[in-house]
Amino acid sequence: MNELKATLRDLEQRYLLFKQQQFTFVAALDHTRENAHDKTKPVSTLSQVQNYLDHYCNNSTDKRILIMFLDLCKDLSDFCSQLEDINPKACSPDDRLEKCKLLLSCNNDMSHIRAKYPHDEVNHLSCDESKHHYGAVISILPVALDLLREGIGVIESAQYEAARNNRYAQCNKKEEPPEKRCSSIQTVPIQRDDCENKYMQWKASNKLKSKPLKSKCPWVPPGKTNGL
């Protein structure tokens, strides 16, 4: 999990570098869309951006920023697939990783996507027309990163819960039930002869203690005899 978090941090750093060049990215889209005579339609799919790069990009600056954007989208999609392999049960229509994977697919219509607070990418666009044409394409990266962060959080919580349940099961397995513990106690057989011998020894000892002592004659001074 630590390696996955490190990979996510690297992707976030790459996105911050790209975000600093947002105006260069929008200008590249402007140039290529004009060359493609496609100024009326908003940029709504990643395949559309790929088409601009392959056929309508005329300078190195535009090509560099478009490649940077598409490479980052591809790496985010690959990272999403890596997370799905770790937690395949999480792949459901409402799952964050599934949403992220769908969002980053080449032909997915992303025209309705808008990055909201605390993201400010859309607010930095110059006018409503620009927001209409480019609001989706500049929102896809921050939205995808949010979904990946949430997905990692869900996987980490699930792994922690599974580990805790496993420890609990092991503790319960170590503790034997009372009836099992009782049955495991070995009873030592008592020998009858030993008991009889000990009893006879005890009886003889008490008999000696209870035997009356011989009475002693009273003390007589020297030169005298009893009764005289």
UniProtKB/TrEMBL annotation:
<protein>
    <recommendedName>
        <fullName>Sperm acrosome-associated protein 9</fullName>
    </recommendedName>
</protein>
<dbReference type="GO" id="GO:0001669">
    <property type="term" value="C:acrosomal vesicle"/>
</dbReference>
<dbReference type="Pfam" id="PF15120">
    <property type="entry name" value="SPACA9"/>
</dbReference>
<dbReference type="GO" id="GO:0097546">
    <property type="term" value="C:ciliary base"/>
</dbReference>
<dbReference type="InterPro" id="IPR027818">
    <property type="entry name" value="SPACA9"/>
</dbReference>
<dbReference type="GO" id="GO:0036126">
    <property type="term" value="C:sperm flagellum"/>
</dbReference>
